[in-house]
């Protein structure tokens, strides 16, 4: 049986806005981030997408995004394996301190994870969740770096290309068949209706 995975990034946070490194540390959604989660929820409603199960990173920014996008109507489990990359002592520091991409093993020397450790963690977590999911349509809310690295593990099976970074509340739609994840769609939302004073 094929299953469908909607893998979504959280909305904008205070640390996103202030350009601070945010992995295992957390900060709240901004007003714009809340709006972004509402727009993602509208997308699901307009497409008639109903979730049989839902999972979130344990980070508050991901949990809040899921609750807003589903109007609090979908029970969900908080899963540590869906957390963002652990950046060690760089957590909460300026993004200016990030090394050039790809990061590879850089953060291991500072108490964080390697890129391979992150990819393996995400792949194992999501594979187990999808394998054991009782329903056919699954929502998971995670983080930009962790989602991008999970997707990269299955690049050989992409049906579409990822041509831009993982924007806030961006969704990757996968079909999961015979233990393989096929990337079917990359969904970026239109936030031009935002009338707040944040950017």
UniProtKB/TrEMBL annotation:
| Pfam families linked | His_Phos_1
Summarize where substrate binds, as residue positions: 9-16, 61
Residues spanning the membrane:
none
> Active site: which residues?
10 (tele-phosphohistidine intermediate), 84 (proton donor/acceptor)
| GO MF | phosphatase activity
Q: Name one GO cellular component term.
A: cytoplasm
Annotated SMART domains: PGAM
PROSITE patterns per UniProt: PG_MUTASE
Q: What's the name of the protein?
A: Histidine phosphatase family protein
The organism is Streptococcus lactarius
């Amino acid at each position: 049986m094929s299953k469908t995975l909607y893998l979504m990034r959280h909305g904008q946070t205070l640390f996103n806005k202030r350009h601070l490194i945010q992995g295992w540390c957390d900060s709240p959604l901004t007003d714009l981030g809340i709006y972004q989660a509402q727009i993602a929820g509208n997308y699901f409603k307009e497409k008639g997408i109903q979730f049989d199960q839902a999972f979130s990173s344990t980070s508050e920014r991901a949990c809040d995004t899921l609750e807003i996008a589903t109007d609090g109507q979908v029970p969900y489990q908080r899963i540590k394996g869906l957390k963002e990359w652990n950046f060690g002592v760089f957590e909460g520091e300026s993004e200016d301190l990030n090394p050039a991409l790809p990061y590879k093993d850089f953060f291991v020397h500072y108490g964080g994870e390697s890129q391979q450790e992150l990819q393996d963690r995400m792949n194992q977590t999501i594979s187990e969740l999808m394998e054991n999911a009782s329903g056919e349509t699954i929502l998971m809310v995670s983080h930009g770096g962790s989602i991008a690295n999970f997707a990269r593990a299955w690049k050989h099976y992409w049906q579409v290309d990822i041509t831009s970074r993982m924007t806030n509340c961006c969704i990757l739609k996968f079909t999961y068949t015979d233990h393989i994840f096929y990337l079917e769609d990359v969904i970026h939302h239109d936030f031009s209706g935002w009338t707040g004073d944040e950017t």
